[in-house]
Amino acid sequence: MSEQPPASTYKKLIPLQLAAIIFLTVSGGPYGLEPLLSFAGTHGALLLLIITPIVWDIPTILTVLELNSMMPVTGGYYQWVKRALGLRFAFYEGWWTWLYTFVDLAIYPVLFISYASFFFPGIEAYKIPVCLVIIWSSVGLNILGIVPVGKTSLILGALVLIPFVILFGVAISGFSGDFSLPSPSLQGLSFNSIGMALYTVMWNFLGWDNTTTYAEEVDKPIRTYIKSASIAFLLIFVVYFLAIVTAQQSGVDYATLNDEGFPVLGSIYGGYWLGALLSLGGMASALGLFSAVLLSVSRVPQVMSDDDLLHKKLHTLHPKYKTPYVSIIVCACIVSLMILWTFEELLIIDVTLYGAGLFLEFVTLIVLRIKAPEEHRPFKIPLNITGLCIMSLLPVTVYCIALAAAFSESGGTIVPALFALGTLLTAELVWQFIQWEKQYTARKTKY
């Protein structure tokens, strides 16, 4: 039998490929941002689009870069929390993130159906089989390895961005008259509308930590992550800003934009051909997001199984491609059961679960600064402990406002919010079961 080559001999991601994966993991283009104008209106949309990334994303990105520079290892955030807070909270982190990602992954096939309806108006009737084809095609790609996912992400990322570049160009060339941005204001908006607008922006800017779970599969990970995350953030923000401004200047009805998506803007500015191009971009976005996010989440159960928190089979690597194919298949099976929720319900559940795990990462950052102040950090946030605490309060505050808004009115937002909170509580229940099972196995072995 021939000896398998060491992991170091396998191809690794380079900065441009990682930037493409980060872009697709976090964003995938403005697709999914359409509800913002319906929730926040003309005067609130840009205000929340500018403020939310500052208080929600920048602290998160800085935290991820510092912790990843200390520990660029497979499992990323799970390993960071385990070192700082112990195995119990690491399980919380892994469990919450695993569950949140199932919800997140379920959103993308639903979005694919939405944009495909531009070409096939009756495709909603075939939602389940189409979604299943998307899910299991991505499984096959992920089993082939991280580099095929990276190369595919470059292609899909281009397919996402090119239609918007054309849209922006057509919109600018056809513009005549005085250009002015609407004055920023949240006046007249209900608390629930503000909360849903926050959820929309937060969801379109989350996932920076997900891209660290495969750090050992990245070439020169510390430098590459800093460079790739910076490129991705600037690209995402600029594209989002231009997309919202273009929508505002078009005079489109916001309810129509919410229902039909950005392809309706293409039809307004360029006719059917541009609407079709944006629809294709939306379909590419959904496919790219699914593959990129599945790549990150499949590494979490792999490392949790190493700590006897999940079944050892989840760590089984493919004999040829060295990918955690059992974990990938299990994740896809669970996601296949989640596709019946609506987009708005998935949005609330998704952000609520993600925010809880993110809170543990901020605590981890502070604890490791206290426990290991002298440890080498190639990237270090230029703040002391007090400054880190204040920085961490910013995203936590936004999270609490959005969650409180979901409970502020009776209606469709309360049920998914309650479901999300109940799901968070399952972490402790499963942890207790794991401890009981270990004790039972130890007693049985002893006697």
Automatic annotation (TrEMBL):
InterPro entries to which the protein is assigned, alphabetical: AA/rel_permease1 (IPR002293), RMV1-like (IPR044566)
A cellular-component GO term for this protein: plasma membrane
A Pfam short name: AA_permease_2
Chain segments annotated as transmembrane: 44-65, 98-120, 126-147, 154-177, 189-208, 229-252, 272-295, 323-341, 347-370, 382-407, 413-434
Cell location: Cell membrane
Top-level division of the source organism's lineage: Bacteria
GO MF term list: transmembrane transporter activity
Membrane topology: Multi-pass membrane protein
Keyword tags: Cell membrane, Membrane, Transmembrane, Transmembrane helix, Transport
Main location: membrane
Protein name in UniProt: Amino acid permease
Organism taxonomic ancestry: Bacteria, Pseudomonadati, Bacteroidota, Chitinophagia, Chitinophagales
